[in-house]
Amino acid sequence: MKNSITDEKISNFRDLVNSNSNFVFNAYSNNNGKNHWNLICSCMDWLTVSIRHLQHAPELDENIDVRVMQMFSLISSIDLVSESIAQLHRVFINPKTVPFSGERICFSQRIFDEDDNSYFKSIRASFGAHPVNLNQSTSKRFASWPFDSYSNEGELTVHLYSNKLDEDDLVMNLNSKELMLFLITRYNYLDVISKKINTLYDDFKKKLSLQRIDTKDNFIEQLYILKIESTKRLNNDYYNDVISNLITIFENYIHQQELEIMFEDYKKALVPLIYEIKDNLQSMNIVDLEYASLLSPRSDFSRKVSYELGKFYTWINSSKYDPLADYYLDRFNSETNFKYHFSNNDSSNCLFIKAKLMLFNQRLD
After folding, report:
1. Do the beta carbons of residue 183 and residue 106 sit within 8 Å?
2. Extended beta strands in the chain, E state
3. Letter string b/e over residues 208-238, b meaning 16 or more CB atoms within 10 A of that residue's CB
4. CB 139 within 8 A of CB 120
5. What is the pTM of this model?
6. pLDDT reading at 1 higher than 60
7. Which end of the chain is less packed: N or C, by CB atoms within 10 Å?
8. Which residues contact 71 (CB under 8 A, 6 or more apart)?
9. What is the pLDDT of residues 66-114, one digit of tens each?
């Protein structure tokens, strides 16, 4: 088993689920009043656990009793894979069906008239899940002590005793190759589910790209429209943050005459960023914004005060007292020859704007 299955497929599936600006999370965390995101996470976690156990399972022991329990552990891991795949199928493909229903390709020499899904459950029950309490349609049965198979039908065998007088035992064999076929077909079904997720994402993008975003001449009105549209269109944290920063800049004023012209020039420089956000949201092309660098341009100066900037932003974005707040402002003032007049009397929004102005202009100095 170690050489025939790896965790690469579930790792790739997890990457897919977490990609596309968290499309799956946004679509399924509240799906008709149900949190299917939690179910998806549970399935991915148990798939990873089970596959890694199968991938790294120890060699089978020579002692029959130890070996029987090792096989039951492997069967249980396969069962977890099968159940997880079935749940993901219900979430993404069809909530009313079970994958592989009716198929009879994995197991030969069946002693019960069941499809692969049901017959695997019978094997699991007989070889460890509840062997002393087996219910069939016509009788109650009990599994014997497992023993090495005396035929070529499998590695282990059990007799299924009946509670009815004069009813013959049934003989069930455990064949590891058949178990592996059952496992691989279920595990590979992740490819089908992945394809469905990609289709759902493409359909989602196409649908929203056809819904026109209103255009406003007033930049503040336009930004509030973009804020709403960004929430609808994948609710990307990066876009939401950029829009929020732009609203703070365009909605506020600096009451310092020496900075007013500078501030107006800065806002004009940011206009292409607003158009870029609108175009990307309209086309559902949620990629890095080229003009977003204007909000925090990098320069020798920004690297010089990087520590203070990080602490400064944390301070103005929270209501917590920072005993070093005056130090941050003094540092900015001293490094810019008091060009921006940072003061503790400034509002948080004013301080935010001054910091952006400082970074924008210092990149040229």
Report:
1. no
2. 134-135, 140-143, 147-148, 156-162, 170-174
3. beeeebeeeeebeebbebbbebbeebbebee
4. no
5. 0.87
6. no
7. C
8. 60, 127, 128, 155, 156, 174, 176
9. 999 999 999 999 999 999 999 999 999 999 999 999 999 999 989 999 9
Provide the residue count of the chain.
365
Dist. CA 267–CA 256, nearest whole Å: 16
Cα–chain center distance at 197: 12
Residue type, 207: K
Own/partner pairs, 32-40, CB within 8 angstroms, 24+ separation: 36/91, 39/87, 39/91, 40/88, 40/91
What would the pLDDT profile of 140-175 be if each residue is shown by its tens digit? 899 999 999 887 778 899 999 998 888 899 999 999
Residue 56: which residues within 8 A CB-CB, separation 6 or more?
A: 2
Is the Cβ–Cβ distance between 251 and 199 less than 8 Å? Answer: no
- Other CB atoms within 10 Å distance of the CB of residue 328: 23
Alpha carbon distance 37, 300 (integer Å): 44
Residue pair 64/157 in contact by the 8 Å Cβ criterion: no
Whether 244 shows a pLDDT value over 70: the answer reads: yes
**Model pLDDT for residues 263-286, shown as the tens digit of each residue:** 999 999 999 999 999 999 999 999
